[in-house]
Hints:
heterodimer, A: mainly beta, four-stranded antiparallel sheet, 11 strands, B: mainly beta, six-stranded mixed sheet
Amino acid sequence: GAVVSQHPSWVICKSGTSVKIECRSLDFQATTMFWYRQFPKQSLMLMATSNEGSKATYEQGVEKDKFLINHASLTLSTLTVTSAHPEDSSFYICSARDSGATDTQYFGPGTRLTVL
Amino acid sequence: GENVEQHPSTLSVQEGDSAVIKCTYSDSASNYFPWYKQELGKGPQLIIDIRSNVGEKKDQRIAVTLNKTAKHFSLHITETQPEDSAVYFCAASLEAGTALIFGKGTTLSVSS
C-alpha cells in the first residue's frame, strides 16, 4: 500500500523555539495533504488542509501564523510550529491524498512534540 | 459542520467473539466513511471504508454497514484476535480524499 513518512518521529524543544515537521508521500503524488493534532487518549483534530502550490486552509481556531504550512512539491508538506510553548506539546499526524484510483487518505506515523 | 459520535468508548471481548462499534454523523452531505485502527504511538491505519452508494462492505473478518437514512454506520469484527486490540476511529467526509472528521475513538481489548 501507499506509504507516508514523517520526520522527525519525536522532538523535544525549548519554549520559544520553532520546530519543523516534514510529511512525505513516498510512492505516490499527493496534491492534497492534511495536518491533524492528537492529544493523549483523544481523537484526531483537523488543523489544516494543504494543497500543493497554494496557501493552506486552516480550521477555525487554528492560528495560521503559529502553525506555518508549506506544500512546495507533490510529495512534501511541512508544518512549522513557531515560538513553541508547552501547550503545543502534542502528537502531530499528517495524511496524504492519493488522488489516483481510490482517492484514499493515507496517514503518516506521527510526530511527538514535547515543548519544555 | 459535521459531527461524528462514536460508541462505545471502550469495548472488551474474549478472543473469538465479535465486536461492534457504532458511529452516527450529522451532515447528510457526507458520502465517505472510513474506519481506522491506531496502535499506541503510531498513525492511524485504514482498515475499511464505505461510500454512500453502498450499504455494506466486507473484507475477511471486518465488515462495515451504512444506513444513510438514519445517518449511522457500524464496524463489525468477527472472530476477534488479541492483535485486534487497538483504538478504532470512525470518520466522515464529503467524499473520499477530503478532510475527515473523526469520532472520539473506541479502545478495543481482546483477551485470550
